Amino acid sequence: MGGDSHLRKDLQAGHVPMFSIGGVIGPGLFMGSGAVIHAAQEKQLDSKFVKKR
């Protein structure tokens, strides 16, 4: 990476709320999907070990 970087390094007022919203939504999706996966695994284990009559 050369020293000829032409990217701006400024943070505008609208960027900070977007970062904070993303910081809340990201972990919420991560935790929510973890709960769904956990529930699905329990149902799968129940169906494997419970004999059908």
Structural features, described:
The chain is mostly helical and 53 residues long. The protein is 66% helix and 0% strand. The protein contains one helix and no strands. 0% of the residues are buried. The model has no long low-confidence stretch (mean pLDDT 79). This is D-serine/D-alanine/glycine transporter. Keywords: Membrane, Transmembrane, Transmembrane helix.
How many helices does DSSP assign? 1
How does the overall form come out from the CA principal axes? elongated
Mean pLDDT: 79
Give the biggest beta sheet.
none
Report the structural category. mainly alpha
Q: Helix and strand string, N-terminal first?
A: H
- Based on CA atoms alone, the radius of gyration comes out at 23 Å
| Oligomeric state | single chain
Poorly predicted residue ranges: none
Q: What percent of the residues sit in helical stretches (DSSP H or I)?
A: 55-70%
Q: What share of residues are in beta strands?
A: under 5%
Termini separation comes to 67 Å
User: What's the count of strands?
Assistant: 0
Could you outline the blueprint of secondary structure elements for this entry?
Elements: H1 15-49
At a glance:
By secondary structure, this protein is mainly alpha-helical.
Highlighted features:
mainly alpha; single chain; 53 residues
